[in-house]
Structures
1.
Amino acid sequence: MNLVMVVHGPEAFDAGDVERMIGLLAPRLVLVAGVMARTAAEESGLPVTCTDERPSVVFRALVEPSCLVNRGKTPESGRIFGELVAGRLSGLVHVECSNGTVYCWDSADENLAAEIASRTGYGLVRAGSDRRSRPEGVREIRGCIPGEAVFVNGLVVGTATAETVVLESAGGTLRVVSGLEPKPHGFEKLLRAGLPDIGIAWCKSGPVRTAPPRQGGRARSGGRIAVVDHCGHTLYRDIGEDVCGVLAVGDDTTAVCGHICSHAGIPVFGVIDGDGDAIVKPGYAPGSVVVEVTHGRDDDIGREVIATRNLWAASWEEWVEETLRALEGRVRIVVDRRGE
C-alpha cells in the first residue's frame, strides 16, 4: 500500500503489532512518535524512522494516505488516545491493536480504513471525536486507572484517583480540580520550569513502558557527560556519539534514563531520594551507579554535582569514582554495575 504508518508508544513494538502490520500493510514508510516508542523501535531492529514530534503534528505534515497504529494499556484508553489525536485533525484512520479495531474518525478516508480492516481482520468502527470547546486553562486527562502515575510534560505530578483527572491553570499556578492525589514535589519541579500551557501540555497516565529493556554493547569509555535533570523524556536530544555517560537527577528520570541507555550501552550515574513511581521496568548498562541521598533531596545534590564536576571525562569509571568520593557520607549506593 502507498501508506505511511505512524506508530505511537512502545507497546505496539513490544507486542509484535508493528512487525505484523508491516507484513500485512507493506507501508511505504513507518514513522515512530514518542520517547519510549523510539527505544522499543531501536530494540526491534525494524526499518522505521523516529521523530520527536507528537502524532498530530506528524499527521498534519503528511499529504499521502496514513494511519495511526497504537496499543493502549486498555481498549478504552486506546480509543481515547485515538479520539484525542483525531480531535486535532480533520480525520484519522486509527488501528487500535489492543482490541483489534480500525477506527475511522470524523472525515477520514473510509476506503483506506476498510482496506486496512480487511487486510488485518480487525473490526471497522466509524466514530466522531468530541470537539466541544473546553474552558480555557482546564485540561482533562481521560483513560486513567486509579492508582497509576499521572504526567505533565514528562514529570509525575501525582496519582490518579479516578478515570478522569482534571487540572486547571489559574492565578499563575496549576491546581488539581479532581481525580488526582497530587505529588507536591512533582508540581514544584514542573512549575520551576515555568507555568505550562495546560491546554497543549503533554499529559499521560500509567507506566511509560511495561517491557524490560534489552542490553546493548558498551558505549565509549570517555567523552561528554549528558545531564538530564528531572526531565527524562528529553534524553534523546542530549545523547550523541560523543557521550560516554549520563548524569540523571530524580528517581523517575534516573529510571527512564537507565532504561533507554541500557540498549545503547551508555552508563548512568543517577541521583535519587526514594520517591519514585515505578513508571518503567528498571535496567542499567554496565558501569552504571545509582546513589540515594541520605540527607536532603536529590535536587540539591544533583545541582551540586552539575555545578562542581567536570562534565567531560577521559574515563567514565574515574569520573564516577571521583564523584562518589565528593559525595561520601551524604549518599548510599543502591545500584552498582561497576566492573561489569
2.
Amino acid sequence: MITQLTRLRFYGCVLGLVAVLLSFAGLLTFGLNQGLEFTGGIVTEINTTEVVNLQDMSSQVSNLLGPEASVSLIDDGHTWSIRQPLLKDPDLSWFAQLGENTASETTLLNSSIIGPQVGDELLEQGGLAMLAAVLAIFIYLAFRFEWRFAFGAVLALFHDVVITLGIFAWSGLEFNLTVLAAVLAVIGYSLNDSIVVADRIREILRSKPCQAVSQSINQAICSTMSRTLITSGTTLTTVGAIWLLAGRPLQGFSTALFFGIVVGTISSICIAPTLPERLGLRAEDYQPKEPVPELV
C-alpha cells in the first residue's frame, strides 16, 4: 500500500506537469476571454413592472444586442443589469423594443460606460493581489515549517492557478471579476489542504525519526485522506449545485471553483508533499536540538 501510494504520487506529479504544459499552450494560443470588467463595456440597469423569467430576458437581450451581451438579476425579478461590449456610438434604441418584446413596462434606471483603461487597471491590481498572496504564503510557510514545504506548497498553488486558467482558455468561458475571486478562493482552499498534510508529516517525522521519509509522507497522507475527501466532497457538492442551477451569471465562478478544488486537492496530496522529499527533506531537521552546555 505504501509503495503504491509513492507510485501514485509520482504519477500525479507527472500528470500535473502535463496539465500545466497544456494549460500554457491554451493560454498562449487562445488567451483568456476577458469580460467587460477588463475590456470595457456598457452597463445598463432597468426595472420591469412584471416579473420576467431570466431565460426569457436573456433570449430577448441576445436577440437585440447579440450573444456577447449578458443579463443578471439584481433582485426578485424586477431589476436587471445588462452588460454589452463597448460601441463606438452607444445608444439605447433597443430599450423601447425590449419593453414591447417582454410585454412589461420597462424603466431605465442607470446606464454607464466602463472604459478599457479601467479594465486594465482592474486586471493589473488583481494580478498584483494574487502575487502578493502567494509571496505572503511562502514567507509564512518558510517560518511555520521550512523552505522545502514552502516551495512545495507555492508550486502546488502555481499548478492549481495555471490549470484553472488553462481550462478557461481552452473552453472560451468568460474570465471576469467573479472568476478572479474564485481563483483567489482556490488558492486559499488548496493552501489549507497543503498545510494540514505538511503538519501531519512534521509530526510523524518527529515521532519516527528512523523511518524512511517517503513512508512518513505516505502515512501522513493516509491519516488525512478521510478529512480531505470529506471536506472536498461537501464543498464540491455545493459548488456543483451552483454550477447546475445558478445559470449563466455564475457559470464562470462555479466552474473555476469546481475544477480549482479538484486540482487543488490532487496537488496537496501529490505535489506539495512530494517536492520537499525530492529536495532532501530529513527527519533530523525536525528533531529537538539538545541545549549546548554553558562554559563555566
3.
Amino acid sequence: MTDSILRIDASARRAGSISRDLTDRILARLGEDIPVIIRDLAEGMPLIDETWVAANFTPAAERTEAQRTALALSDRLIDEIKAADTLVIGLPIYNFGVPAALKAWIDLVARAGVTFSYSENGPVGLLSGKRAIVAVASGGTAAGSDIDFATGYLTHVLGFIGITDVQCVTADQLALDAEATVAKAHGQIAALAA
C-alpha cells in the first residue's frame, strides 16, 4: 500500500511529454488521495562541484555554515525520498542515457553514510522498504536493449541506495509506432498493483 509518493519528472518538455503523461496515469492508478511531493527536474539541478564534495566529506559536526549551505539542496532531496513510500520517476531516454538533470539529481542523493554505506561485503543501501515505478519513454531506443543505458543504470542506482522494488512502464521506440507502444504502456499501468 502506498501512503506517500515522490514524483520526479526528468523530461525537459512540459507539453507533449510522454513520460509526464505516463507519470500522471501512474499516479491516478495508485490513488487520487495519496499525498504527492513533486520534484520537477526541468526546473534545473545544480551539478556537484569541489565545494559540494569537500562539504560532503567533512564530518557533519565539523561543517562550516557555507558547507551546510552547499549540502542543503542535497539534504532536502534526500528528505523527499525518505518521506515517500513510492517513487514515480518519469524517465525519457536522451541519447541512449538519462537526462542530465536526472544524473545531477542522482549525484546529489547518492551520499555515503546518508543513502548508502560501505560494508565488508560491499555497498549497502540505506533507503530500503520503498517502491519505485519508472515511466520510460524513448524515440528509438528499445528499453532493455544493448543501447539502453538509462533503465538499467537508474535501476542500479536505485538499488544502490536501497530501493530494489523497481518496476518499469515502457513506451519505447515511439518513433516506430507511437500508438502501439503508448497502448502497451497504458496496459502496464493498468496492471500495476495499487
